[in-house]
Amino acid sequence: MPAEADTRALGQAIARRTQQGDMIALEGGLGAGKTTLARGFIQHFTGSVEEVVSPTFTLAQLYDGPVPIWHFDLYRLKDPMEVLELGLEDALTEGIVLVEWPERMGHLLPQRRLEVGLALGLQNGRQARLAGDPSWAARIKEIGSDVAR
């Protein structure tokens, strides 16, 4: 993906295919585009243009929409069990969960999820990789069709 707008567009395409109870695990190093993708996702899903920032210091941010969206940034997590204190179980039951730095969840990372791997590519572009459990197979193909247009 050559630009920030394309990363936001990928977030929007994912949002169109997401439903209550879904988890999207955003993987990639610092500056890879995780928050940019989350911004596109949240703004599309809520229909709002409100500022979406990474919850690096608050660890979790809740956005109202047709289904609540929980945005977690686990970069500062010291122990995987801390994610339970942040309300992960309620978030998965009641809404949609976006998680930056999902590897910090350790054994608590659900099997049922979409993994979005982002990496910096050539000429300031980004590369994206989508993978998921069987519930995501058809949706990943649809997302790919959306962003290829």
Compact summary:
The protein is α/β, with parallel strands linked by helices and 149 residues long. It contains five helices and six strands.
What report would you give on this structure?
- This protein is of the alpha/beta class and 149 residues long.
- It has a single domain, classed as Rossmann fold (3-Layer(aba) Sandwich), CATH 3.40.50.
- It has five helices and six strands.
- It has helices at residues 4-16, 34-46, 82-85, 88-94, 137-148, and strands at 23-27, 60-63, 69-73, 96-100, 114-120, 126-132.
- Helix 1 (4-16) crosses helix 2 and helix 1 (4-16) crosses helix 5.
- The longest helix is centred in the N-terminal third of the chain and has 13 residues, at 4-16.
- The radius of gyration is 14 Å and the shape is globular.
- The relative contact order is 0.21.
- The mean pLDDT is 87.
Q: pLDDT under 50 segments (min length 5)? A: none
Which CATH-level-2 architecture?
A: 3-Layer(aba) Sandwich
How much helix is in the residues? 25-40%
The major β-sheet equals: 6 strands, mixed
CATH superfamily: P-loop containing nucleotide triphosphate hydrolases
Broad shape: globular
Task: Using brief descriptors, characterize the structure shown.
6 strands, alpha/beta, Rossmann fold, 149 residues, 33% helix, six-stranded mixed sheet
